[in-house]
Every structure is written in structure tokens, then in C-alpha cells.
Amino acid sequence: MGIQVNGLPFNKYTWIMTHNSFSIVDSPPLPGIQRLTFYNQEDTVTNQLRNGVRGLMLDMYDFEDDIWLCHSFRGQCFNFTAFQPALNTLKEVETFLTENPTEIVTIVIEDYVHTPKGLINLFTSAGLVKFWFPVSDMPKNGENWPTVTEMIQSNRRLLVFTSDASKEDEEGIAYQWRYMVENESGDPGMKQGSCPQRKESKPLNSRSASLFLQNYFPTYPVEADSCKEHSAPLVDTVNTCFKAAGNMLPNFVAVNFYMRSEGGGVFDVVDKMNGRTLCGCDTITACQVGAPFGSCKNIAVPSKSPGTNTGGSFTGYVQFARSASPDHFPNCLLVLSFYFLLIAILL
């Protein structure tokens, strides 16, 4: 874990989280079905994790007698909004954690699963229970979490949160807003000079929850727009939310198309936040293990994040797969089609 430095409590770090991590451009639809939904990411979950993402947002639904990842509405998964069984993605997480024994991953579930014991059985089938951080040991009144060193040594390296409060007692899966505060998602969370709390969340400046999830993605995702969104506006919004949260930096910054920016992007923003928190330096790469706080290496701060790109491919682990059709539905056409179909279903 490159940013561990002095092994501080887990809640003293900032991590990149991908919004709708499974909603990937070029993901094949069900046979004979034209998928009609929005896309939020460009590479596989495995590649996201390899590139430094440590938080995944997954929408889970009952579908076809199984639990699927689906980008849908009205709490129901349709064949034209379905992606794949959740087990496939969770197995990617299991492989990553097995191959990287010093890494910690957080999963936040938008939960529409009603099958009794469905979620815990799913994680058991994926082989992830061996990494499970138990609800019983999670701080419930704003206390510090264990240090990352302790979490690694005890192999409690998977944190899972659900939006369904009943799952905490029934399945031992933590109810998200008992442990973290969160700002509003979509366009309201990106409005300059504003950082409203999500309605389910405690106030952002509450100290009864020790984790802070900052959403930073538009209601309707557009790949090209994310380049600008992840530059100066992201920095401004982080500063605004820092003040709204009572001078508390976010532990997770959730974004679409995480590799895109016109500069350092989300990688640079997170590196700077971790540098300030962990060692008092302008970036995490200036920190020195064992050195007094504020003792920084004299290095040039990079102007670009690793593999930052605006043209459709990057120099990370896996090249983006591109569809032959331009833009995978133009955004305005997709919005209109999506809502015409929604109206038809509602009627």
C-alpha cells in the first residue's frame, strides 16, 4: 500500500471511488437485447483496481433468479438495463485482494435485493468473507477506525456498505449512513460553491460518523465533459465540501470516467489531500517514511495523473475497448430515448 506512510487510521486517508463501477462502455448486452442506459466507466473493475481505485459503487438487483448489476429505475432491473451477475464482478475483487495482500477495498451497494440472505450468500459465493470487516467492530459514534496496518495484519480488508438498513441486522452488512456522511449525488453535488448533504445522510459536519463520501459526478454522464469536470471544478468542489463538512476531507471521492481530466485529475487531487493529511506535504509522493510531520522531499508536483487521456486510450494496464458506433448513443438522444421508454413502462 503505497500511501500508508505511518499506518494511520483508515478514516484518515482519501481514496478514489468509481460511480457505477460496473456500468462500463462496450459491456456486452444480453443476447438479442439493445441496452438502453447510461455508461459511467471505460475499463473493467479489475483494471480500475489495478490503476488505484479503492472504492466501488455497485447497484444490485434481483434479476433472472439471481443478483445482477443493473443501471435501472423504480427498483427493478430490466433486460435492457442489465449488465451481468454481480458474482462475476465480486470475483474480480476477490482475485485482486488475494493478489494484493496489502490493499483495502470498499464497496458501497445501492441495494434493491429482496432475496432473503441474498447479499451475504453472494459475498460468500464470491469467496470474499475471508476479507470481511465485521459490522460489530466498525466505529459507530465517529471514533477512529483501526489503522490500515491493523486491518492488513488481520486481513480485514473489505468494507461493505448497503443502502438497506434492514441488512445490518439480518445479514451483517453495514447500513451506509450509520457510518458515513455523504453529499448529494448528480448535478446538485457538482454545483460550484454548494455542497448539500444527501437526504439519507446525517449533516456533513456531524461527528457521529467518521467516514465522508463525496459524490462528484453529473446526473447524465458524458465522457468528453469529464475531462473538464475533473480539473479546476473538482478542486473547487473539494474545497467547498471540506468547509461544509467542518474541515473534514473526504475519505472517498466518487467520479465517472476516473481516468479523464485536463490535468492531474482525481489522482492528483487525492494525492494532494493524502499528502496534507499524512505528512503535511503538498503531495503524497513528497512524504518520507519515519520523518517528522512537514518534512517533505523536494520534488516536482506532477501536472498529469498516470495515464491521463482525453482521446479514448491510456497507458495503464488495459487499453480502452472502443465501440464502432460513435459515442455509444449521443447523450441527448439517449436521454430522450430513455425517458420515452420509462414513460411507456409506467403507463
UniProtKB/TrEMBL annotation:
PROSITE patterns: PIPLC_X_DOMAIN. It comes from Arachis hypogaea (Peanut). InterPro entries: PI-PLC_domain, PLC-like_Pdiesterase_TIM-brl. This is PI-PLC X domain-containing protein. GO terms for molecular function: phosphoric diester hydrolase activity. The lineage of its organism: Eukaryota, Viridiplantae, Streptophyta, Embryophyta, Tracheophyta. PANTHER family: PLC-LIKE PHOSPHODIESTERASE (PTHR13593:SF140), PTHR13593. Pfam families: PI-PLC_cat. One of its GO terms (biological process) is lipid metabolic process.
